[in-house]
Specification:
By secondary structure, the chain is mostly beta strands. It has one helix and ten strands; from the N terminus they run H-E-E-E-E-E-E-E-E-E-E. The protein has a four-stranded mixed sheet, with no helix packed on it. A hairpin with a 3-residue loop joins strand 9 and strand 10.
């Protein structure tokens, strides 16, 4: 067999061995900094609180969970994630730390309406807790 024929045969074999059928994902891995909120909790997202309003009874708590991280990596583990700072600032002066991951819990002991907004984004990112 000539060298040229060997090279062509190897090229054909290599081409047929590559590509599809691997079943691998091309999506980046999910961000590890996101914290799903518990039932009745509020998700702190990139520019919103979800849901933006919650009604509870006096003596109960609400948990805000930060979900503002996005993957910047490739599907094979390279890169990382970017997480956005937020804070939960209530009109009554109580505030969470400004943070990019984790959660914050507040217990509401008295009935009333408790408006809040993001420490970083202001009233463009706002919500309210109604305590009955």
């Amino acid at each position: 067999m000539r060298t040229r024929d060997v090279c062509i045969a190897l090229a054909v074999i290599s081409a047929s061995a590559c590509g599809g059928g691997g079943g691998g994902s091309t999506n980046p891995p999910p961000p590890s900094g996101n914290t799903p909120p518990p039932a009745g909790g509020i998700s702190v997202q990139n520019n919103s609180f979800s849901p933006s309003s919650r009604t509870i009874t006096a003596g109960n708590s609400v948990t805000w969970s930060w979900n503002s991280c996005t993957s910047t990596g490739d599907p094979y583990g390279g890169g990382g994630e970017v997480c956005i700072d937020h804070g939960v600032n209530f009109d009554d002066g109580i505030s969470s730390p400004t943070q990019d991951k984790g959660s914050y819990v507040r217990t509401f002991t008295a009935a009333g309406v408790y408006p809040y907004h993001c420490a970083v984004h202001g009233t463009a990112m706002a919500g309210v807790v109604t305590v009955q």
